[in-house]
Amino acid sequence: MRTIIETTDDGSHTLYVPEMDEHYHSTHGAVQESMHVYIDAGLRHCNKAEINLLEIGFGTGLNAFLALLEAEKLQKKIHYTTLELYPVSVSNAASLNFSEIIDPTQRVSFEKLHTAAWEEWVQISPLFWLKKMKMDLRDLPVTPPEEKVDLIFYDAFAPEKQPEMWRQEIFNGLFSCSRDNAILTTYCAKGAVRRMLQSAGFTVERLPGPPGKREILRARKDVHDSVSTR
Ligand SMILES: C[S@@+](CC[C@H](N)C(=O)[O-])C[C@H]1O[C@@H](n2cnc3c(N)ncnc32)[C@H](O)[C@@H]1O
Fold first, then answer.
1. In total, how many domains does the chain have?
2. Does the beta carbon of 37 lie inside 6 Å of ligand 1?
3. Cα separation values, 28 from 31, 54, 189, Å
4. In this structure, is residue 77 part of a structural domain?
5. 53 is in which domain, residue-wise?
6. Nearest-CA residue for atom 12 of ligand 1
7. How confident is the model at residue 229, as a pLDDT?
């Protein structure tokens, strides 16, 4: 996928895909959006001591980088599985300014996310393990993660640009590979997406979005008491 680096309103980079006329992040602020949707509404909301996290769309590695830094702050172990069909090259990733903007002392950790081998677990920091899977999200129902997940970062390109990433079968598959009380967050608050998440079995909340976006979604796999009360 041919991409061009652009600078968003908070000074952090994003990638622009000319063929799709689509950005990897909000042009109002890439770091600001990722922090808001995935770290504040997702990771900080997950009360497990050890977290199995699944990301859809590794892309620039920004969400993974923020999660790695947060693991150290929260002192929680994270096993981070991420799916990506069109990896960004290591040399392109090296031009991104995320570590300069977020924490210049963590430049090496950001690089490690990109140089890590694919299809195997790699320890990036004391509390953060990464497994990058070069695969099509649409194959997830047939090749689910080896362990069920506690948290999902759903960060596909927008439904108008890539409708095949926002289909009922995909959300059903994500529900099946989630543990009880698992959380899914996404920047996309479209009614059709909310209804697909609900049909899959999730309970869905609309939350205020980051600058430039009215709402985002947080879905939870609630545990329902199956014992009937008489
Ligand atoms: C919105 S961007 C992800 C941004 C990323 N989370 C980040 O922090 O940079 C969407 C990502 O989905 C990937 N993608 C597109 N089609 C895919 C597919 N069928 N399966 C898996 N990943 C796909 C793209 O290559 C892109 O990296």
1. 1
2. no
3. 9, 25, 17
4. yes
5. 29-220
6. 57
7. 43
Q: Is residue 57 part of a domain?
A: yes
pLDDT digits (tens, 9 = 90+) for 18-42: 999 999 999 999 999 999 999 999 9
- Domain assignment present for residue 202? The answer is yes
30 CB within 6 A, ligand 1: no
Q: Which atom of ligand 1 is nearest to the CA of 164?
A: 19
In a domain, 16, yes or no: no
Summarize the confidence of residues 44-55 as an average pLDDT.
96
CATH for 215: 3.40.50.150
**Contact indicator for 171, 196 with CB cutoff of 8 Å:** yes
**Ligand 1 pocket, residue 86 CB under 6 Å:** yes
In sequence order, the β-bridge partners of residue 152 are 54, 184
The response to whether residue 164 sits with its C-beta less than 6 Å from ligand 1 reads no
* 58 in Cβ contact with 160 (< 8 Å): no
pLDDT average, residue stretch 221-226:
77
C-beta 185 within 6 A of ligand 1: no
Q: How far apart are CA 154 and CA 188, in angstroms?
A: 9
Instruction: State the closest ligand 1 atom to the C-alpha of 156, by its place in the atom list counted from 1.
Output: 10
